[in-house]
C-alpha cells in the first residue's frame, strides 16, 4: 500500500516516502494491552506474515480466552472466538471443512498448556494442517496473575504467594519439548520477543510454521517468550531482562522440530 | 425420489439420514448406545468426500462442530447422556454465536455414569438450556426408525432457518431397535441457504466476518439476549405434535419418543377394557406444543404423562394445562422400561 505523503499545502511531497506502515491484515483498532506487553508485537508479526504470504483473503484465525480474547478486533481476516483452550479443535473443524484456507490459532499458556492441553496434543497427533501462535508469559495475565503450568519455580503469583513450589504444583511444562515426540508435528520453535534481533528470528520461525501448513507437512507452532510486566510486578525493561536472564533457562530458545526445511519445495 | 423399504437399526438410520440431510462434517467420540452412528459415518462420509473426524473427547467434538459450523458447513455430532453433559459449554457458545448445527443425544440412564440402558432423563438438559445462560436448542423427539432417518434433515433445515443448534433427543431403544424404514437410494443434496455470515475466509469480501459469543458491554449483551429471545419467540411456529385416538378419549396420555410407542399400545389395551384413552405425542420438545396440549386436554377427565424419567416433561404439561385438568404422572428410571400393561394399569387407576 502506498500512502501519498503531503506537504502542509496539500501537494505531494516527492522528497518523503513511507518506510513503515500498518500491515493490511492488521486493523486500525488501538490495542488494549498493558504497557510492556508483547501481544501487540506478536499480532503485528502475524499480520505482516499474512500480508507477506498473500493470505488476507483465505485466512481464518481462532482467538483464545485470556488477554488476547479480543484478537478478532485486531486482524482484518475472518475470525472466530473459541472457548478457553479449545482453539485447536475449532481450527480442526474449520480446516477439515475448508482445506485450502490458512487457519491459525492464537493462544496463551493458560489457554494452551492448562485447560487446552488435550486439544493441542491431539491436533498435533492428527497432524492437523494448522499454525499455532503460542504466547508464553508464565502466568494467567487477564484473570489477575495466577500461577500457570509455565510459571517458573519460585515465581510469586496470586495463587503461589510464597513462590511456585514444585513439590505441590509440579515443574513448568515445556510445550514444544512435550509436542516434539509427536510425528504429526511439522515445526516447533521457541523465541523470546525481547529484542529487534529476536523479533527477526521470530519472523524466520513464523515463516516455517506457516509453510508447514501451506506445504501440507503438518502442524506448526511458534512459542514466544513474552513479558507480563504488570502481573510480574516489574518495569517493562526489567521484564525483558528477566526473560533473557531467567526464563530462557527454563524454556531454551531455538528450533525444536523442523520437518519443513527437509521438504522445502 | 427413489427409495426402498429396508429393515434398519435406529442408529444406522440416523447416520444415513444425516448423509441424506446434507451433513458435510461429523465429529464424535465413542459412547454406548450410539456407536453405530460414528461407525457408519466413518465409512459413508469419506466415501462422499465429506468430513469424518473421531475426536479425542466430546469437548473437542462440539468445538470442532463449532468451527465447521462457523465455516458455513452442515456440521453435527452424536453422543449419549454423559457425553452430552461434556458438550454443554460448547452448545451454549454455539447458541450465543448463532451457529446452526445438529447434536444427537441417544439417551441412556443417569445420573452419573449411570447405565447404558434407555432413558429419557435428559429432557431438562435438552429443553431448559443445559449449558449456561439463557438459550434454547430446537429439540426433536423421534419415536420410530423412520423418524430417526428423517429428523437429521429436518434438524439441519430448522437449525439453518433459525441459526441455532438443533438436537435430536432419542434413546437407547430407538438407537438399537430394528424396524422397516424407507431409505432414499440417491444422495441428492438438499437446498441449503446462503451463509453470508460464515467465517470461511474473505475470498474477495470487502469486510471480515467474526463468529463470537463475547459481548463484554452489559447493554450490548442485554440487547443480544433480547435478539435471541425474539428468535425463540418466533420459533414457536415450528411446534410439531401428533395425536392418536384423542377425539373420543376420556383420558389423554402425553408421551414422547419410545415412551409414546408404549403409551399408544397402552391406549389400545385400555380401549379393550372399555376406557377410551388417547395419545398426544410432542414431536418438538422445544418449542413445546403447549397450546395443542391445552386444546386436546379440554373436556378430558384426566391427563397422564408417561416418561422414562422421574418426571421432567410433566412440568411443561402442567404449566400448559395450568390446573384445568388433573395431571397424573407415571415414570420409570434407570433403564427400566414399563410394559403397555403397566401403563394401562395407571390409566385404570387414574380414571377410577
Quickly list its features.
heterodimer; A: about 260 residues; alpha/beta; Rossmann fold; two-stranded antiparallel sheet; 9 strands; about 15% strand; B: about 350 residues; 2 domains; 7-stranded mixed beta sheet; 5-stranded mixed beta sheet
Helix content of chain B: 40-55%
- The run of helices and strands of chain A is HEEHEHHEEEHHEHEHHE
Quaternary form: heterodimer
From the alpha carbons, calculate the radius of gyration of chain B and give it in angstroms: 20 Å
**Architecture of chain A, according to CATH?**
3-Layer(aba) Sandwich
Q: How many domains of chain B?
A: 2
What's the number of extended β-strand segments of chain B? 15
Biggest β-sheet strands, sense, barrel of chain A: 7 strands, mixed
CATH fold annotation of the largest domain in chain B: Rossmann fold
Query: Spans of chain B of 5+ residues with little confidence (pLDDT < 50)?
Result: none
In CATH, the architecture of the largest domain in chain B is: 3-Layer(aba) Sandwich
Structural class of chain A: alpha/beta
Greatest interface: A-B, 36 and 40 residues
Task: Using the alpha-carbon principal axes, give the shape of chain A.
Answer: globular
| H and E string of chain B | EHEHEHEHEHEHEHEEHEEHEEHEHEH
- Give the averaged pLDDT of chain B, no decimals: 97
Structural class of the helix and strand makeup of chain B?
alpha/beta
> What do we call the CATH homologous superfamily of chain A?
Thiamin diphosphate (ThDP)-binding fold, Pyr/PP domains
Proportion of beta-strand residues of chain B: 15-25%
Beta content of chain A: 15-25%
Amino acid at each position: 500500500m502506498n500512502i501519498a505523503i503531503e506537504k502542509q499545502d496539500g501537494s505531494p511531497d516527492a522528497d518523503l516516502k513511507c518506510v513503515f506502515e500498518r500491515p493490511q491484515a492488521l486493523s486500525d483498532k488501538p490495542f488494549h494491552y498493558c504497557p510492556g506487553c508483547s501481544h501487540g508485537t506478536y499480532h503485528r508479526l502475524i499480520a505482516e506474515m499474512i500480508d507477506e504470504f498473500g493470505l488476507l483473503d483465505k485466512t481464518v484465525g481462532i482467538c483464545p480466552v485470556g488477554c488476547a480474547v479480543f484478537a478478532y478486533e485486531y486482524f482484518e481476516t475472518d475470525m472466530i472466538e473459541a472457548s478457553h483452550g479449545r482453539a485447536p479443535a475449532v481450527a480442526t473443524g474449520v480446516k477439515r471443512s475448508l482445506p485450502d484456507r490458512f487457519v491459525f490459532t492464537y493462544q496463551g499458556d493458560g489457554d494452551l498448556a492448562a485447560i487446552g492441553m488435550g486439544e493441542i496434543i491431539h491436533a498435533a497427533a492428527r497432524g492437523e494442517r494448522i499454525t499455532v501462535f503460542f504466547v508464553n508469559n508464565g502466568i494467567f495475565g487477564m484473570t489477575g496473575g495466577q500461577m500457570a503450568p509455565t510459571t517458573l519455580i519460585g515465581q510469586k503469583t496470586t495463587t503461589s504467594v510464597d513462590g511456585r513450589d514444585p513439590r505441590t504444583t509440579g515443574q513448568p511444562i515445556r510445550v514444544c519439548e512435550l509436542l516434539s515426540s509427536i510425528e504429526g508435528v511439522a515445526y516447533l520453535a521457541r523465541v523470546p520477543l525481547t529484542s529487534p534481533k529476536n523479533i527477526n528470528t521470530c519472523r524466520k520461525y513464523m515463516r516455517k510454521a506457516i509453510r508447514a501448513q501451506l506445504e501440507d507437512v503438518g502442524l506448526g507452532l511458534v512459542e514466544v517468550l513474552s513479558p507480563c510486566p504488570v502481573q510480574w510486578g516489574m518495569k517493562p525493561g526489567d521484564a525483558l531482562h528477566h526473560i533473557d536472564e531467567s526464563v530462557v533457562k527454563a524454556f531454551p530458545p531455538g528450533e525444536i522440530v523442523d520437518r519443513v526445511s527437509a521438504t522445502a519445495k | 425420489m427413489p427409495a426402498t423399504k429396508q429393515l434398519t437399526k435406529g442408529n444406522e438410520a440416523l447416520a444415513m439420514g444425516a448423509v441424506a440431510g446434507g451433513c458435510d462434517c461429523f465429529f464424535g467420540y465413542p459412547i454406548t448406545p450410539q456407536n453405530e452412528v460414528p461407525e457408519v459415518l466413518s465409512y459413508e462420509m469419506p466415501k462422499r468426500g465429506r468430513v469424518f473426524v473421531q475426536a479425542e473427547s466430546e469437548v473437542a467434538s462440539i468445538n470442532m462442530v463449532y468451527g465447521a459450523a462457523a465455516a458455513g458447513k452442515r456440521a453435527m455430532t452424536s453422543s449419549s447422556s454423559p457425553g452430552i453433559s461434556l458438550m454443554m459449554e460448547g452448545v451454549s457458545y454455539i447458541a450465543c454465536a448463532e451457529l446452526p448445527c445438529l447434536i444427537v443425544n441417544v439417551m441412556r440412564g443417569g445420573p452419573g455414569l449411570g447405565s447404558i440402558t434407555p432413558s429419557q432423563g435428559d429432557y431438562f438438559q435438552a429443553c431448559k438450556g443445559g449449558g449456561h445462560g439463557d438459550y434454547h436448542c430446537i429439540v426433536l423427539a423421534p419415536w420410530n426408525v423412520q423418524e430417526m432417518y428423517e429428523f437429521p434433515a429436518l434438524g439441519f433445515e430448522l437449525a439453518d432457518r433459525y441459526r441455532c443448534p438443533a438436537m435430536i433427543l432419542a434413546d437407547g431403544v430407538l438407537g438399537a431397535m430394528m424396524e422397516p424404514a424407507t431409505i432414499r437410494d440417491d444422495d441428492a443434496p438438499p437446498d441449503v441457504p446462503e451463509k453470508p455470515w460464515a467465517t470461511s475466509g474473505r475470498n474477495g469480501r470487502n469486510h471480515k466476518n467474526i463468529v463470537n459469543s463475547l459481548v463484554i458491554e452489559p447493554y450490548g449483551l442485554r440487547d443480544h439476549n433480547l435478539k435471541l429471545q425474539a428468535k425463540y419467540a418466533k420459533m414457536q411456529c415450528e411446534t410439531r405434535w401428533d395425536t392418536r385416538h384423542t377425539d373420543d378419549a376420556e383420558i389423554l396420555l402425553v408421551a414422547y419418543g419410545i415412551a409414546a410407542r408404549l403409551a399408544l399400545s397402552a391406549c389400545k389395551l385400555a380401549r379393550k377394557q372399555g376406557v377410551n384413552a388417547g395419545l398426544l405425542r410432542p414431536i418438538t420438545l422445544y418449542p413445546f406444543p403447549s397450546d395443542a396440549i391445552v386444546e386436546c386436554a379440554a373436556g378430558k377427565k384426566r391427563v397422564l404423562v408417561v416418561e422414562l424419567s422421574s418426571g421432567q416433561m410433566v412440568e411443561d404439561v402442567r404449566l400448559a394445562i395450568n390446573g384445568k385438568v388433573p395431571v397424573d404422572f407415571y415414570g420409570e428410571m434407570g433403564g427400566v422400561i414399563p410394559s403397555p400393561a403397566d401403563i394401562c394399569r395407571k390409566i385404570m387407576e387414574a380414571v377410577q
